[in-house]
Amino acid sequence: MSLRRAVLCSRNRHKARELERLLPGWEIEPLDRGDYPPETGATYVDNARSKARFGREHAAGWLLAEDSGLEVETLGGRPGVESARYAPEGAPAIAKLLAELGGDENRAARYVSELVALAPDGSEHRGTGTLPGRIAHEPRGSEGFGYDPVFVPEGEERTVAELGDDWKERNSHRARAARALLAALGGALLLAACGGSSPPSVERTFARFLAGPDGATWAARFPHQPGSRPCTTRDPLVKKVVAATCSTALSLEKKSVLATFTVSWAHGSRVRAWLVFLRNDGRIASISREGSQ
Predict the structure, then answer these.
(1) Strands lying side by side in the sheet with 270-278
(2) What amino acid positions are annotated as catalytic residues?
(3) pLDDT value at position 87?
(4) I need a surface site. Which of 115, 169, 240, 270 has the fewest CB within 10 A?
(5) Which CATH number belongs to the domain containing residue 99 in this structure?
(6) Are 148 and 161 in contact (CB under 8 A)?
(7) Are 235 and 242 in contact, with CB atoms under 8 Å apart?
(8) Are 79 and 143 found together in one domain?
(9) CA-to-CA distance for 35 and 14, rounded, in angstroms?
(10) Within a domain: 189
(11) Are residues 18 and 161 in the same domain?
(12) Are residues 179 and 37 in the same domain?
């Protein structure tokens, strides 16, 4: 059973299914309308926000909207927010891009995705994802869509279309945006399940925890503010900087342990989540951990 339902402000059923896989526990249905406003925003966020607000006029509950594009360094960041209108999707767009680049040896590029979620109460939550790489000299591979046959991710020799949909589901710019959105939503969703606000007993318990030595130890695990953007870390396994997502959340327990402090991060292929059960004096009662190195 899905934990949460949302309307995706797009007619693209492929994107709705992809986001369902990237947002576990969500059931997502596209808003199939022919009168979406033109995407005239100066940024991806502008366009995603415009689509989400349009969706609010026609649907209730949670609204999701996404805008994404390809930015090529030597083309001054084009096609960027115009990626979907640069040329007809697929072979025509790829042919135009390769013609513009010609024999230029600077092939640096990146994919960018911005996800915007509007909660039923009107609050806005965002997730940003980027995938750096370079443009190949010719298309290769049969999976994916858009510019995937000519986009080679950083650290890879194959295009996204060659790496395949399984790789893309874990590593794409949209996957990274989805993880960032989940991090941003984590606290809001847990608190909503507790009645819409953080109970004073939980706030006091957590404040005592942060003020003590255990709180300082946990804070040291996060070299940057959880949920911050850009969110990166140096992964010692691959010896390079990788995209990361971190989140924290609080929830109320009904028994003697008064609060659960949830901490999670994803650093490349390394994923961990902790549930820290706190006593009302801020001391740790127990810890459980899930995830991989």
Answers:
(1) 232-235, 240-252, 259-267, 270-278, 284-292
(2) 67
(3) 94
(4) 240
(5) 3.90.950.10
(6) yes
(7) yes
(8) yes
(9) 19
(10) no
(11) yes
(12) yes
Domains contained in the chain, number: 2
Q: Given the DSSP bridges, would you call strands 240-252 and 259-267 parallel, antiparallel or unpaired?
A: antiparallel
Domain span at residue 217? Answer: 198-292
Q: 155 and 211 share a domain?
A: no
CA–CA separation, 88 vs 222, rounded Å? 43
Q: What phi, psi does 127 have (nearest 5°)? A: -140, 130
Is residue 77 assigned to a domain?
yes
Q: Give CA torsion, residues 44, 45, 50, 54, to 10 deg.
A: 110
Q: Are residues 122 and 164 in the same domain?
A: yes
Same domain, 24 and 162: yes
Kindly give, in sequence order, each residue whose CB lies less than 8 Å from that of residue 249, ignoring residues fewer than 6 positions away.
186, 187, 189, 190, 191, 261, 262
Q: What is the DSSP string of 254-269?
A: SSSS-EEEEEEEEETT
In a domain, 135, yes or no: yes
208 lies in a domain? Answer: yes
Give yes or no: residues 233 and 124 share one domain: no
CA distance linking residue 5 with residue 178, whole number of Å: 15
Kindly give the confidence (pLDDT) of every residue in the chain, 293 residues in length, as a single tens digit, with 9 standing for 90 and above.
Answer: 334 789 999 988 888 888 888 876 678 999 998 898 888 899 999 999 999 999 999 998 899 999 999 999 999 999 999 998 999 989 999 999 999 999 999 999 999 999 999 988 788 888 899 999 999 999 999 988 889 999 999 999 999 999 998 888 888 999 888 877 876 665 444 333 333 344 556 656 666 666 667 766 665 555 454 445 556 666 666 677 766 666 666 666 555 666 666 666 666 666 767 777 777 777 777 777 766 54
What's residue 191's pLDDT?
Answer: 37
Burial of 213 (0-12, 13-18, 19+ CB in 10 A): exposed
